Amino acid sequence: MTTMTRGSALTVTSQWTAFSGGPNNDLATLSLTITSVDGVVVYLPGTSTGFAHPATGVYSYTWAPDTPPPPGQILVTWVGTTTANAPVSSSELVTVVGAPTGSPTPTGIEALLDDRLYVSRYSTQQVGFTAVVGGIPTDVDGDAVSCQMVDASTGVVVLSRSADHIDTGVYGVTLSGVDSAVIGIYDLRFTYTLSGTQDLNVVAIQVGPAYPAYDALDPVYRQMVENVWQRFGDLFDSPLGGPYLQTQLQAKFNRNRLAQLARVGVGRLNTIAQPHQTYTLDDANNPFPVVKWGPLLEQMTYVEVIKHLIRSYVEQPQVNLSASVSRLDRRDYMSRWQEVLAVEMADLNRMIDNFKIANMGLGQSAVLISGGAYGNFGPAVSYGGAGQAAARGYFPIRFY
């Protein structure tokens, strides 16, 4: 089987004989087409030029696409006629693999470092996309969408199935615990036709360890954790991008830690000032009104993570230089994170002031009738958003 490495040219060869095991014969006509396995996506339309003809009956073609197909399998099809005007054809599956580990992809970004939807191992997650044409969700032709889950490192197709039509313009697949059983990075390749044009949409996901605190969160809170995680994604002193802390074997800096710190942040918001509140991250027990105050909760979690980093660097030793062993001093991280904390706390404090005032009902109209107070018209807080989000999957929008 032929293999193509993304970012490199692919050379395919065909050999034609008069009969099986017979002598080579030249062809009168020959064309080459490269498509997806199901034929929906055409990577190279039928071409009859550019062939090398090194020997009788032997033809080769070198294909160097500007945009290489994603990891997975593609279909190379040769079609021609013999000198006797008899039709002949041949096809071959080619496996497309990612760039070798440590080598940059065509975008200059390691596949592991891409922004990917996090899926916990053994979890069930609905993932898909929304097709939007002119600002309006629009169904694809015939509601026919196929999906392949491809290992982004090896190019191996691990599942292939039809996508569900969930709503107008919304299509997706539900990954079961079996589908998410193997930790790794994957691309979900959705192929379809829209207004007569063949198209491909790729949703990048990462299957990682199951985190109890993170997995217990409602999807709307998990998205908040993801937003905070991304704020640390472009730090320099980690091979994966992010805080240096996560490279230490004894550290557990991951999404689970952020979920735990988010709960600490909610507790702090409840008790940091009057009025005392009892919000939680439990959708069934007075959930935090994330639809209205989501930016506050995200900022509070971000500050709690910075404070966690400061605590983590407290025990870093001083520099100990010697001829035999030298130890790095990373204690400066603590003071530098404190500088970042001071900036972020200024924003957070202003947000907390508004949050507390709104929940006290200050500045709202009050009613006094016949000498008695019959209530005030305070802010109405809806708690339905978090519960409704639990039924939703991850559907990035594809605009046209």
Labels describing this entry:
single chain; 400 residues; Immunoglobulin-like; 3 domains; 5-stranded mixed beta sheet; 20 strands; elongated
| Structural class by SSE content | alpha+beta
* Shape category: elongated
Spans of 5+ residues with little confidence (pLDDT < 50)?
Answer: 101-109, 370-391
Total number of helices: 6
Radius of gyration: 29 Å
Mean pLDDT: 81
The H-and-E topology, N to C, reads as: EEEEEEEEEEEEEEEEEHHHHHEEHE
Side-by-side strand order of the widest sheet:
1-8-7-3-4
Please provide the count of β strands. 20
Terminal residue distance = 37 Å
Helix amount:
10-25%
Query: Structurally, how many domains make up the residues?
Result: 3
Biggest pleated sheet = 5 strands, mixed
Percent strand: 25-35%
Outline the fold blueprint.
Layout: E1 2-5, E2 10-15, E3 27-36, E4 42-47, E5 52-55, E6 58-63, E7 72-82, E8 87-97, E9 117-120, E10 125-133, E11 136-137, E12 146-151, E13 157-162, E14 164-167, E15 170-175, E16 184-194, E17 197-208, H1 212-215, H2 219-231, H3 255-271, H4 290-312, H5 332-360, E18 366-369, E19 372-376, H6 384-389, E20 397-399
Parallel strand pairs: 1-8, 9-17, 10-20
Antiparallel strand pairs: 2-6, 3-4, 3-7, 5-6, 7-8, 10-11, 10-15, 12-13, 12-16, 14-15, 16-17, 18-19
Helix pairs in contact: 2-3, 2-4, 3-4, 4-5
